[in-house]
Amino acid sequence: MQSSLRVAVVCSSNQNRSMEAHNILSKRGFNVRSFGTGTHVKLPGPAPDKPNVYDFKTTYDQMYNDLLRKDKELYTQNGILHMLDRNRRIKPRPERFQNCKDLFDLILTCEERVYDQVVEDLNSREQETCQPVHVINVDIQDNHEEATLGAFLICELCQCIQHTEDMENEIDELLQEFEEKSNRTFLHTVCFY
């Protein structure tokens, strides 16, 4: 069953956290897209101060082949090749949120800095339809395990929101319940298109 809720999941590089959630939500029948807010796409490199930096135009396939060539063993061991392989099955390349003009009902961000960038971008746009969009931040650490746990939490949240009769009036209460249950705090704001 396809959900009518238009959902976007946003992290910094559109690689790990947003793609894990994109994967799980699309398997559950949600109408979902994923994005990054960074100026470039960054992936771990041979040392903390030597990340692999790509343009948002670079496909997941190109990144995969580049890292395979650079150091197959390292990028297999740290899970980056596995992640890129999953990503390229979902969509061709990472997308930058600031370049997308499509409308969403719900935007989920994976860290506070990304939440701020999304809200700032939405507020700087010309308001055309006055259609509300709920932006919710779920803090997720940027590693494989946390991305998976975070994606299930995001999925559960989307399923609950989808089942509300009146999203505008019920969402605050629903988020409060979720905060208590998951022992996390969620930032939430409403912007308008």
From TrEMBL:
Keywords: Hydrolase, mRNA processing, Nucleus, Protein phosphatase. Its EC number is 3.1.3.16. It comes from the Eukaryota. The keyword Manganese does not apply. One of its GO terms (cellular component) is mRNA cleavage and polyadenylation specificity factor complex. Its main location: nucleus. GO terms for molecular function: RNA polymerase II CTD heptapeptide repeat phosphatase activity. InterPro entries: RNA_pol_II_suA. It catalyses: O-phospho-L-seryl-[protein] + H2O = L-seryl-[protein] + phosphate; O-phospho-L-threonyl-[protein] + H2O = L-threonyl-[protein] + phosphate. It is found in: Nucleus. GO terms for biological process: mRNA 3'-end processing; termination of RNA polymerase II transcription. Pfam families: Ssu72. It is an enzyme of class 3 (hydrolase). The keyword Cell wall biogenesis/degradation does not apply. Protein phosphatase that catalyzes the dephosphorylation of the C-terminal domain of RNA polymerase II. Plays a role in RNA processing and termination. PANTHER family: RNA POLYMERASE II SUBUNIT A C-TERMINAL DOMAIN PHOSPHATASE. Belongs to the SSU72 phosphatase family. This is RNA polymerase II subunit A C-terminal domain phosphatase SSU72. It comes from Monodelphis domestica (Gray short-tailed opossum). The lineage of its organism: Eukaryota, Metazoa, Chordata, Craniata, Vertebrata.
